[in-house]
Amino acid sequence: TSLSDAAFCTSFGPIVPGGRWRTLSPPSLAHHWLRTSERLRRRPIGQTLPVSPCVITCFLLLAERADFPLLLLVDRLEDLACLHPEADKLKHLVIKTDTKMPVFKHPEYSEETLLHLESLVPCRESQVSTLLSLFGEHQHHSFPALFIYGHTSSGKTYVMQTLLKTLELPHVFLNCTECFTSRLLLEEILRQLQRLSTKEEHPPLVSCDTFNDFIYSFKQTMMGPDLQNQTVYIVLDNAEQLREMESNILPGLLRLQELTGRNVTVILLSEIVWELLRPNAGCLEPLPLYFPDYSIGHLQKILSIDHPPEYSFDFYAAFINILLGVFYPVCRDLKELRHLAALNFSKYCEPVVQGEANERDTRQLWKNIESHLKKAMQTVYLREISSSQWERLQQDNGEPGQLKGLSAHAHVELPYYSKFLLIAAYLASYNPARTDKRFFVKHHGKIRKMNFQKKHEKTSNHLLGPKPFPLDRLLAILYSIVDSRVAPTANIFSQITSLVTLQLLTLVGHDDQLNGPRYKCNVSLDFIRAISRTVNFDIIKYLYDFL
Asked: Which of 497, 495, 532 has its CA nearest to residue 415?
């Protein structure tokens, strides 16, 4: 077959990690060259790679007779010499694969800017490309409203902030959780807009009583020379909070471009779908854009970027792989995983630093860190201790429960006897009164009948909620669980009142009851377990539901 026919002309697209071949050559030739290229990339420097001479001959003929040039893509120019002596003739057709080409395309920005943007938003190239195409150029009218939604820690807020700051687009960024009323929201938009227009750090405050006042002030502010001929972006994070405001706020913001006659785009960031946010009266439908959750491959790539310079990329990537293998089934939050990686990497490196293992000894490194990752699962992920306390726990090689006062729930700093009062109140609220003899009396007799009743009970007391109890029962349990004798003084009763003031206990009924006051415990099981650990009291042994 003659190789001069146009049907045999070959064109190869750029080969980059994750790229692919595009070919118009005969299938056998393309397949052979693809296998050769893969073997070539994996070849260590200096090692020869035997290739069939007919392949080189075919490509030489194609390069000479093709209507468009043939491009060979290799990592190193010296790779050509290991293929075939005649391959030197193809040097002028070589394109180095380390020549980075930007994924994003935009006529208004340079390749350096787009490459920098690409490095800042890994694994979100598709969403950023869509946003760039919607934004257009500065003077072009953009889409009036966008609705970006996705689960927590899917990169919505970070991508929008990075995109607007990197491209230096005029924008207003607000968190609807902080601006919890319509007046605060509208005035904050005007304040940030004035800062863009006047370049003042602290512009004068603008009062905004109604939405009509907001529209008038918005149009006046947009008349500035810096904002008149370009698009202004108003980004509202946690947009689901707009449902709690007046009914005209959300429809008015979505029609802001129409009402003001200015080049403005409103971008809503939310964790819920648009159907749950749409007003009942109807409004202008925004353009939706979905941010999917990061896959385990995306998390591996993003977390591996943070590798310390003193260690190799492969070593840190192996650590991230172990970390994701432990935490990915229970935690998909990128911030939490990054926090866990920063805390546990020093422990992972200990065998390497001490000379007991090298960076490739993955099995020994895993054995060294396995127990510490289990501790991190119990404490750091639940945020029961701070980062410095977790590092101290690693150095002491202790259990999480051995450090006192580390629970985030125990930061109330209750007095010693107030903690026991709260424990006694919890036991009185969640244990049936008939079980007090079993838990707090040494010789309580037979319990066969109690076990029989327990077997036939349908619902757990923790599912039914706390039950009220009298003051006498609270004090009786307190005297049983405290080692030393506690006299019923005014100090004890004042601490009960303090617990009611802190809303840890609730007073049921009136204070002037003839039979004495009745209380109910308001704290959760996790809270009371944290309090119990600070006084070395195992409350689980005294709970009827956990027998």
From this structure: 495
